[in-house]
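[job 0417] fold request received: SET domain-containing protein
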Amino acid sequence: MNTTAAMIAHMAPDRNTTPEQLAKLIDVHLGDLHEADPNWTLAASVVAGRGVFATRDIARGELIFRERALVVGPTARKGAQLNTCVCCHCLLPAQGFLCAHRCTLPVCGPCSDSETHREECQHFQRWQPIDAVPEGAEPSGAEQINPLSLRILTAVRVFHLGQQQRSLVDAMQANAERGYRQEIIKAAQCFRNFPTTDKPFMDQLFRIVGVLNTNAFEAPCRVDGHETLLRGLFPLTAIMNHECTPNASHYFDNGRMAVVRAARDIPKGGEITTTYTKILWSNLTRGIFLKMTKNFMCDCPRCNDNTENGTYLSALFCREQGCKGLVIPVQTKTMQPDWRCLSCENVFPHAKMARYQDFALNTINNRINSSSVQDMIHFINELCPRFCPSSNYVLIEAKLNVIWRMTRFNAEQYTDQEVAHKDRYREEILAILHKLGAGECTLKKLITEEIQ
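[job 0417] inference complete; emitting structure tokens
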């Protein structure tokens, strides 16, 4: 497959795949992971066209399915560590980490000559990366990785899948956002010979990028003590429809295996749901994310309750002088609601409260990105209560960050008092999850260290 035509030879569009046809493609994809008598099936869904349903009663905590990634690549997010091998995901040295064959991808020595890397390497070479060192010239030592070209790698890998695997990709939903086309245009500008005039190829590339941006997950992977985020396409996991407090939870085993279990009891015939957002985000934050990235508005019971089962994850402090009450959104069907104080009952416009929320978000995120664990604990305990209620989702995210860092890295370096603060944060978050009815969700298992 050395030509563009060969790359798309078996990529004929099949947008109207039935649930039965999709089920056959999923069976092939699962391979030896497909159970002889699975507790799930694919069927038409009133939520979003098709979904995953229980074939019998499924008990809380029960395994529903495991699934290998169909394709994996780097996230290439802003701020991500880019000098990680795109094949084996090991951490590369500070210099000399680009492929020896001048494709400009970060690849370790053994992987640069591997069968896994060969085809994608040849494509990048043919497209002539503008950052490539001229043949015969010596590297300057100041190697750069272009995240725009790196992100397109996952889509390129789809072209090298088998015919049935490519049919499965093409059968998946793809939102045709303008931003996705911009992603391709920016990637094309990283090459001197990108096939932008080849309409069949560009149409198929746009379709693949849409599938990835609509369905792919970010999953952590650890290699030799180094952790990186991968971008993986797990088709069956992606077919599950969204619910803000879902009845199933998923986690990823080292970036390449999705594991889905029941978070609550699921009755026979019930739709098995997951969440496309973070479960502790506020109503407004989840709503904006779903509208912008998934192109729908959720109408679940949680989204219609402005207290979110009494968790008050959206709550901010009242701006009325002398009042210490909590202010929450009044309406639940709009992205710009009015806000009302639960104590003085004053109503505030969304623009004012949005500025206040952005201040809290930026202040806390800046601390997360720049502070030690010890400084974060002091900030959460002493400074945050002055401008942010303890229930606000942004402050909850800060507490999760402390738990994660203390659990995941250098656990032995913390004092008994710092460990006590971490344990208190954990209990507070578990109480919120209980109010939400989250059951045995992945977040609960992560912070109680049931998942390492």
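[job 0417] notes: The chain has 16 helices and 14 strands. The longest helix spans residues 350-370.
[job 0417] exit 0
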